[in-house]
Amino acid sequence: MQSLVNPTIPGELRRKIVDARRVLVLTGAGVSAESGVPTFRGGGKSAVWKGMPFDVISSAGMVSRDLPAVWEWFDYRRELLKSLRPNRAHEEIARWQDRFEKLTVVTQNVDGLHQLAGSNNVIELHGSIWRARCISCSSRFEISRTQSRPDICADCGDRLRPDVVLFGELLPSGAFEMAAEAAAECELCFVIGTSGLVYPAAGLPEIAKAAGACVCEVNPERTPLSASCDHVLTGNAGEVLPLL
Ligand code: APR
Prior knowledge:
Elements lengths: L10 H9 L2 E6 L2 H4 L20 H4 L2 H6 L1 H16 L5 H12 L2 E6 L5 H4 L6 E2 L2 E8 L5 E3 L17 E5 L10 H11 L2 E5 L11 H7 L3 E6 L11 E4 L2 H4 L4
Helix pairs in contact: 8-9
The chain binds adenosine-5-diphosphoribose.
The site of adenosine-5-diphosphoribose has 26 residues, from helix 2 and strand 8.
């Protein structure tokens, strides 16, 4: 994947990076594109999930109408992910834990690649494809990479569903609040690989900006968030982040 532009990093941004103690990173599907994970809406040269109207199959209504079809879609995505590895962007973000006094990684991705690259305490706004949740008692179960996934809740015997946020559903309790708190207290906020179309996640850079943080976007394409960012680095995350 070639970047469209190889951006020069402005001196002012470099100084911010040196001085910043509290940093927030918000990521979207684009950060995993160079690992081979399709994005939802395209952008850059990323592939999109094909043949799946994801806002229908990934909807709250679909869980009650046809849970097996929802599982089929998520099983398919998990199978694809099994062979994929974190890319330089995930690795760079994981390294930032040692670079900044407080780094908060907030992701909309459910693929677990930040954690696989070594990031700790990732706030997963949209859940994880590697967990199942009981539709009755909400008990959560890890899904192994090697064994078949559980179908039935070990606590109450009811059916399990993917532990991800579907269209029309609320975010996991506390996740956005924690992310918003980190946004309000950060000095530097990176918005990496997201189309900025899905709220409330897309509101985090606005919270950071309103609280006085410097906001920097990394994306091969402009987004609705670009105009309000202090810096826009145009290019692929895996190529731009190692330059910082
Ligand atoms: N590096 C950085 N950004 C990239 C790259 C790359 N190599 N390739 C593509 N992008 C950018 C695209 O330009 C686009 O702006 O990534 C973004 C991907 O946007 P979406 O597909 O809309 O993904 P995202 O913003 O994460 O979607 C938000 O929508 O359906 C849901 O729940 C799903 O979490 C997802 C949410």
